[in-house]
Design goal:
The chain is of the alpha+beta class. The protein has helices at about 5-25, 60-65, 70-80, and strands spanning about 30-35, 40-50, 50-55. A hairpin with a 2-residue loop joins strand 2 (about 40-50) and strand 3.
Length: about 90
């Protein structure tokens, strides 16, 4: 896979995270997606509602999302965002 496909994947995952937060009405103070380590995994870190949560995406997950986010990667983003949804009493 090309570097371009990897960069597109990072953008797709970031855009999906932003949209998911917006759709759930969560105002994030920080959303960061950065390459990490020799295997070129990507770390998505979100801070909102006084807490921070992170999820790691493999190089393959990132490049597979270059054209459009795939279902397993979308599910990981949704699980991460769900940590910020307040519990209903």
């Amino acid at each position: 896979m090309s570097q371009d496909q990897y960069q597109k994947g990072l953008g797709t995952i970031r855009s999906f995270a932003d949209a998911t937060l917006r759709d759930r009405g969560i105002a994030a103070q920080s959303v960061q997606l950065a390459e990490q380590g020799p295997k070129r995994d990507a770390n998505l870190s979100i801070s909102a509602n006084g807490k921070t949560q992170a999820e790691v995406f493999s190089y393959d997950e990132v490049t597979d999302s270059g054209e459009a986010i795939d279902a397993p990667t979308a599910a990981k983003v949704r699980r991460l965002v769900s940590n910020f949804i307040p519990d209903n009493p």
